[in-house]
Every structure is written in C-alpha cells, then in structure tokens.
Amino acid sequence: MVIGGAGFIGCNIVRRLLDEGKDVVVVDNLSRRGAESNLEWLRSFGDYAFVRADVRDQDAMTRLFADGGWDVETVVHLAGQVAVTTSIVNPREDFEINALGTLNILESIRLSGQRPLIIYASTNKVYGGMENIVIEETDTRYRYRDYPMGIAETMSLDFHSPYGCSKGTGDQYVRDYARVYGIPSVVFRQSCIYGRRQFGVEDQGWVAWFVIAAVTGGDIHIYGNGKQVRDVLCVDDLVDAYMLAADNRDKVAGKIYNVGGGPQNTMSVWTEFGPMLEDMLGRKIPITYGDWRPGDQPIYVSDIRKVADELGWTPRTTVKDGMKMLVDWVVDNQDLFE
To answer: Is the pTM of this model over 0.90?
Structure first.
C-alpha cells in the first residue's frame, strides 16, 4: 500500500512494484498538481487498486486496514504537506496533514491487528538550522568545516519551522510505534529528491521547479545568494532504497536512516546548478534574487554511510546524468505544465 501513491515519489515506487508483479493499493487524495496525470501514466504498467482518501480522515484510514479486504505486507507512507513556506502560512493544516495524518495511519494499523512494515518518508529538516556547526563560504557554495561526510543520524533533532515540527512529530511517532506496539517501521530522512514525474513548484521540489520554469519561460526567483548546498538524489535511486527496506523488514525495523545523494552528489542551488542548466538548454536563464526564507539551511548534506553499511545501498546516478534525464523529460512533456 502506497499512501500518497499518486505523487512524485509515490508513482515512481508504484511503477517499480508493478514492474515486479506486486499487488499494489494506491491511496491518495489527488490534491497535488499532476496526481491524476501520474495515475493515468501508471495504468500503462499494470493494474492496481485505487482508493481516494485523505490521511486527516481517521474513519477513512481505519477502513483501509479494517474493512479494505487487503492483507497488507508493506505500507509506504508518503502523503504529506511538503513545503516549509506553506507550513508557515498555515501551520494548523500542516500539523493536521503531517502529524495527525501519520498518527491516524499508525492507529488504524495498530487497531486492525495487522503488522505490515511501515516505511515513512521523513526529511532532513528535522535537524533544523544546525547553527552550532561551523560553515565556510567559497566562491560558489557553502561547506561544512568539520563534517566532510555530511550529517549523520546521531545529529540532535531541532524541529525548526512548522514543517520541521510536523514531519519530526511523524518521524518520532513512527519510530515509537515500533518500540511500544511492535509495529515494524523504518524512517527515511530524505534529502532533495528529483526526477521524472516531478511537478515541482516554487515552494517545494526546487530542482524540478527550476527546470520547469527554465524550459517553459517561467520566473525563477532565488532566495538568498544561491550558494546554498544540498545533496540531491535521483528518484530511481531512492526507489532502490525503498525496495531494499521492504525486502529486509527484520533488519530495518525500528531504524532511522539518512537517505540522500551524500557528499558525492551535491550542488549549490544556483551558483553551480544554474550554469549546468544553462549548458543543457544552450541559453542564458534570467533570474531574480530575494531575502532568505525562514528555516532555510545554508548547507545540508547527508551522511549516508549507515544505510550503505546495513543495506548495501548507495546512489548510482550522478548529478549530471540525473539532471539530464529530468531536463529531457520536462522538454518532452511541456504540455503537462501548461
């Protein structure tokens, strides 16, 4: 069962499951742009069950597990409010979707008596601004002085922004339901994920948003100086991690992993990504600049050694190859963004 299965990451996971001949239940409220298009795209890969439901609806979540008639082996929980800026504008809705919605899912599973593996999509924002870490500035980027391998799972939690609070709440509830109720679960604290079928917007999915805007003639506005650094991960590699977790439920149960591109797959938001994108499109891209946004980290890079050691997973797609795939997809599918 993939909750949020019509979204960007969800539809890529569903496609892989269908390719492997799995029986899949897709749950989504279809509120995100591109969700219905993603569902239609999935039909070409096989049949799946679809339930239109909202994680905020406890009765709907209860029916999924109590009355749905499915013996669920794995639940991939991807449904969520995904933008820091949106959470600041409407923190109550952000809480209801991310925190309460996650509790609704967990309680529905607990009360049903089923014990599927739950894979929860968390975020690096649970680490907050990490103001105590020394950051150095170069001509094109920020870098950690003392963390060459990135930030590990042992970093203190600091839920900065309503989004960080709501996702961090879900993160900890999922972990604790494994400890208290014996419901196997694993938390993936994800970095910037990009790839095909991503309908990025300015508030979220910045890699895809920049590509879409550059290809279709939209406005690109950089908050801050563009030197902010992120480790980026192609969605195909992320799906590999989800499949490995599903196949190793006893090994991952109760664990938390940072899952991102790691130090080998980083780029600055514009001072490095901009020239790469301009080179791929063969033209200059106009941009404007503005103030930094609340909760925006100057740099975040995941230390992915734990997931590499325990599951044998590492990213396979280079930044350049992954960006080329995304650019080609947007160029070939401009009608989806009209």
So the answer is: yes
